[in-house]
Amino acid sequence: MPLDLAIDGGFTPRHYQMPYMAAMDAGCKFACWVMHRRGGKDRTALAQACKDAFQRVGLYWHCLPTLRQGRKVVWDNITSEGKNLIAQTFPPQLVRRKHEDEMKLELANGSIVQIVGADRFDALVGASPVHVTFSEWALTDPRAYDYVRPILRENNGSVAFIYTPRGYNHGYKTLEVARRLPGAFVSVMTIADTGVLTEADIALERAMDMPDELIRQEYYCDFSVANVGAIVGRYMSAAQQQGRITPEATWEPGARVVLSGDLGYRDAAAFWWWQLGEGGFSLINYDEDTGLDATEWIARIKAHGIDIAHVYLPHDARAKTMATRHTVIEQFARAWPCSIVPRSGLQDRINAARIVIPHCRFNEVACSRGIDALRSWSFRYDEERKVFSAEPDHNWASHGGDGFSYGAQMVRELIREQVIATATEWDGTHYPFTLEELHERCGFSRDRRM
């Protein structure tokens, strides 16, 4: 029997929420719903999942960027009516059992609805959801969808992406894919479409010093705003507009390549391949993964088949672990000449990245995830004070951002020297230096290892 949410679930959709629910009722398998902040995306998607769960028995996931956000934003959330969001959407008569620790509901008909985090997908291996809603998709690690896509294809499941824009990152790509996909539900809704907020509300936000860029992003779904709070977002937008993100930025055999990386075991480790050539630097490859030790990474890097002249590692590469008697840099130095990037403040690394990016080209295929990371690498936002902190948000994007910034530190001086020489010595078409000069100017000889 179809579920009447107004009676059984305590939810009556607003006019602008009904098209999404109607599309899912009609069997839509791919939904992309871009909407302004405070439009009720999560509540609507959960209500729809409740309906669907009583039509098809299965596992239904509501995924936030992190598990912690899932608990705060959904599981423990109190609605404007003063009720718990989960209890209001899934009242007692619909729930057989509630698992507080797993944020999981067993429904009366055997279906399961669970709140999950994209940062903990490794803990969900083996599950087979029939529907996944990615909430705040523009802030979510895009690999999360790669994990569930084959599962949903095999079991004829469905997926929904609900989010507010964050510049031209993977969220924008998803919208473009949806627009070309037959049968997909696609909707972009601003406050002008929903009427939830008025111009008077926006005027108050401005009076409270909310930046105009943030207003355009949060309330008018403006993708052209370079991810407010993004560390190098506008520099990556410029790279896109200037054609420097291209499949043509490829490895040239015989060219000298250096590697820079951010280390991690439980967290992700990330590596960038830098090639020096005409016009500056070409970022020709990127790799990232979790759970690999130094030996495994060395084998994986070699498997890419790109000759590496030098490896630059962060200062924690000197640390020893309980699992090995040798430091990371000692192990890497057996394969390539290696150096430790001089310890510096975070702001110095960020400045280095901002200086270097205008002189970089990126292979849009081989560096796709790294490019997404740079676009999404952002300062942490303080919800209570309504300001961005001076510290980056430690999430999926920070690994690629850190790995890039370590490399940028090492090549920044060359950029500065060439800018000074521009007026008399340089015509803007190439950088007349070699890797040997790079190592010398950065304080490292070619064969110096530590």
TrEMBL record:
Taxonomically, the superkingdom here is Bacteria
Give the Gene3D superfamilies listed for this entry: P-loop containing nucleotide triphosphate hydrolases
UniProt-recorded name of the protein: Terminase
Q: Where is the organism placed in the taxonomic lineage, from the top?
A: Bacteria, Pseudomonadati, Pseudomonadota, Betaproteobacteria, Burkholderiales
